[in-house]
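Quick review question:
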């Protein structure tokens, strides 16, 4: 019966006695609560049992690699069996994968290709590290897949973090197989030192024992460098011939030499640092010379570009690169430009061909120490005097119209002789010491009028082992300005020595380190205009290389043409100034082209045109109320316009911009078109 027919109110009094009875007996309430709780637990248990029944167990893993593949596939994650296989192999590659991972599936073919070429020398093992019942999943905790580990006997793991490309993986595996290059002749030493990458050389005598003292330590340090630097930028070599080792000043077995093109090469200080593999690797990584660096983004979120571009203006060069090829002509040209650009001393040490080694005669320098009055060669050489400074002495009388101009040089052919390869470099502290010693004896260089250049060798005031050479002559005051304006050659047919040294004939004086182009006539033919430019400008560039076969998408984002067949591209990005410039893609990427590109950027008022990103999909319609502005039309429409311009900046993803459009259109209709241009 419903409440409308009057039965509802009559039923209420019937429930009141029961409620009053339960209130008088609280044990009834407790019993009811317990019964309801038990019923709820039973219902929950039944529900959970039904949910567990509908959960399907994971399928058993299957082979990830083909059964005919040279890669051993442990698809059930048998990591213990993989370690058992590693005991009988010298070089082992582990490929940890997840069968559902797209990157693992893409890298599978690349690893299989490398295994088909190196399976007779390297053991390739693939381990499924996703199967939850396998030991690999229980013992390894990887944050990404795939992961490649290499072992060289008991040393490892060496993780490979480079591109998942067959050529790069094979190159890295070969570096692990042979971490040392054995150098037994001068020609091999020349090839090793000519490479643009920094090199570490160790000299060991193999006559006394199969493994000389320190050899295994040096061998392990080469593996440590691959472990810390997956790009493999430092090459390690072993010299086995005593005479070849003498070319780079290595005399004792176990000595280690770090070769650098521009800065002074170093010898490992075993008297200061312990002779361990970790210390040798750390010493080489901290003191290596990085004139040009490879950038290889891994494809995920990374701060690689941001960290490098924050260092300063960057020249990014995209070239097609195959690491397995032995000859790279384009890379050699770029390397030569980089060496010239960083060669602040303009010495022969920065030449990649190392002409000093090509001489077939006897060594140019001996180990004896002659006196200060040594006969000079017939012609002054930049390589022999890399550090010079021009000094203008005060006038000897106030009415005199002449000046004594001296070329003060650090004479590195006197005293302790440098080695043929170890060409000393300019040190401003040495120049300062030379100037102090020179000014203490400046009265001896005064000449009233002389048509000859007088040269003198004198000892350093600070060190008895340092010698300096000063060549002085008298010139008129207007001649000093004429030198700087007309760039004439400062020469006389005769140069004589004063009473400080022996007399001899020479052709040229030694120019200032920054002004040698003014005095040496053949410098333009032998060198380039960008020589030492990195030290003569505040807009120093950092040089980077990228493989266009892998990272061409970055070149397209920076302004490269998508339809180009030859994937060569160069751009300068200045993050601080928020500008970047693009090298004309109609020009071939050659050394001379890069030199002009660098020079035009380095001058104060650069003639390079700033590159701006344009939207080719925008179609301009003159009948519109609002003018669409693009990169190409911004200057004419906004900057050069005689009208007042109201400009709206918007983005396609901006939701507020879309809601503002109709208001902006109404505003454009209200403003007088003769005085205002409304654009976006």
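Suggested answer, residue by residue:
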């Amino acid at each position: 019966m419903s409440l409308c027919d009057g039965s509802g109110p009559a039923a209420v009094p019937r429930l009141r006695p029961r409620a009053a009875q339960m209130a008088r007996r609280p044990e009834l309430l407790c019993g009811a609560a317990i019964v309801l709780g038990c019923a709820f637990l039973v219902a929950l248990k039944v529900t959970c049992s039904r949910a567990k029944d509908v959960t399907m167990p994971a399928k058993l893993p299957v082979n990830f690699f083909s059964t005919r593949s040279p890669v051993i596939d442990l698809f059930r994650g048998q990591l213990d069996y993989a370690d058992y296989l590693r005991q009988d192999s010298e070089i082992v590659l582990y490929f940890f994968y997840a069968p559902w991972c797209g990157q693992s599936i893409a890298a599978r073919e690349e690893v299989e290709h490398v295994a088909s070429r190196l399976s007779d020398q390297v053991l390739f093992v693939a381990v499924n590290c996703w199967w939850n019942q396998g030991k690999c999943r229980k013992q390894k905790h990887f944050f990404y897949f795939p992961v490649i580990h290499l072992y060289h006997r008991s040393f490892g793991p060496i993780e490979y973090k480079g591109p998942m490309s067959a050529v790069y993986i094979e190159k890295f595996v070969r570096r692990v197989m042979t971490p040392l290059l054995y150098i037994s002749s001068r020609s091999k030493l020349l090839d090793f030192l000519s490479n643009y990458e920094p090199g570490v050389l160790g000299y060991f005598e193999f006559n006394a024992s199969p493994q000389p003292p320190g050899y295994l330590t040096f061998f392990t340090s080469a593996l440590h460098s691959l472990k810390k630097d997956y790009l493999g930028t430092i090459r390690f070599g072993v010299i086995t011939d005593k005479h070849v080792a003498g070319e780079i000043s290595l005399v004792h077995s176990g000595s280690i030499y770090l070769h650098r093109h521009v800065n002074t090469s170093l010898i490992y200080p075993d008297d200061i640092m312990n002779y361990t593999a970790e210390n040798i690797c750390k010493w080489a990584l901290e003191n290596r010379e990085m004139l040009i660096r490879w950038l290889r983004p891994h494809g995920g979120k990374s701060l690689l570009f941001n960290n490098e571009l924050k260092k300063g203006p960057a020249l990014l060069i995209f070239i097609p690169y195959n690491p397995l090829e032995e000859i790279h002509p384009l890379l050699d040209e770029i390397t030569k430009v980089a060496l010239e650009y960083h060669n602040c001393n303009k010495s022969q040490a920065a030449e990649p061909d190392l002409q000093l080694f090509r001489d077939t005669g006897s060594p140019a320098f001996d180990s004896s120490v002659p006196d200060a009055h040594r006969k000079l060669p017939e012609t002054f050489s930049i390589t022999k005097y890399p550090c010079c400074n021009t000094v203008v002495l005060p006038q000897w009388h106030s009415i005199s119209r002449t000046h004594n101009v001296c070329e003060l040089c650090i004479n590195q052919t006197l005293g302790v002789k440098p080695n043929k390869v170890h060409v000393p470099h300019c040190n401003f502290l040495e120049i300062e010491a030379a100037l102090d010693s020179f000014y203490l004896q400046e009265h001896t260089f005064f000449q009233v009028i002389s048509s000859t250049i007088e040269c003198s060798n004198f000892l350093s005031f600070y060190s008895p082992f340092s010698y300096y050479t000063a060549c002085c002559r008298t010139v008129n005051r207007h001649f000093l300005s004429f030198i700087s304006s007309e760039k004439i050659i400062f020469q006389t047919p005769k140069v004589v020595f004063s009473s400080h040294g022996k007399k001899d004939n020479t052709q040229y004086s030694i120019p200032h380190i920054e002004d040698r182009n003014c005095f040496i006539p053949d410098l333009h033919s032998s060198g380039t205009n960008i020589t030492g430019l990195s030290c003569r400008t505040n807009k120093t560039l950092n040089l980077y290389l990228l493989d266009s076969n892998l990272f061409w998408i970055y070149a397209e984002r920076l302004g490269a043409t998508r339809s180009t067949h030859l994937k060569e591209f160069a751009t300068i990005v200045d993050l601080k100034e928020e500008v970047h410039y693009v090298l004309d893609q109609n020009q071939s990427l050659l050394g001379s082209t890069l030199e002009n590109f660098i020079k035009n950027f380095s001058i104060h008022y650069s003639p390079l045109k700033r590159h701006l990103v344009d939207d080719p999909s925008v179609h301009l319609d003159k009948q519109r109320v609002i003018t669409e502005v693009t990169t190409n039309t911004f200057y004419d429409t906004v900057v050069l316009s005689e009208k007042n311009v109201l400009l709206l900046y918007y983005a396609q993803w901006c939701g507020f911009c879309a809601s503002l459009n109709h208001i902006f259109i109404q505003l454009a209709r209200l403003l007088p078109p003769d005085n205002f241009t409304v654009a976006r």
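Why it works: The first strand starts at residue 72 and ends at 74. The domain at 614-679 is CATH 3.40.30.10 (Glutaredoxin).
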